[in-house]
Amino acid sequence: MMFEIRQKVLFRHCDPAGIVFFPRYFEMMNDCVEAFFDQGLNCPFEQFHQTAGIPTATITTTFTSPGRHGDMLDLRLNVTRVGRASFDYEMSCYCGKIQRFLTNATLVQIDLNGKPTPLQNSIKQRLIDFIKVSS
Question: What is the pLDDT of residue 116?
């Protein structure tokens, strides 16, 4: 099982030539993570952030082909590892059968003072369940 959202490439995502300005993909990635928390983990991001944070600690992205204004993108998130205070995911983005990017990232749960803290038990269990289904 993977988590998936659709995103239409809007004018605001593009440079004057109508090609996606690559930093906009990082915004789309974050939108997918927020939707994953809300729909996949049943933990709305805005509620989660009232007691903790979950910043990106590492991210590696390969842009494989340019996106264009009007493209319908499918962003697909797979949990690949669950640790004590962090988890890893792989996210791919396709327009039809053409891959636009592939990214791997680590998110770390922090307390309100910015210190790493163990993942909330309910979140951790849902992530573990998700990774079991994805395997």
Answer: 96
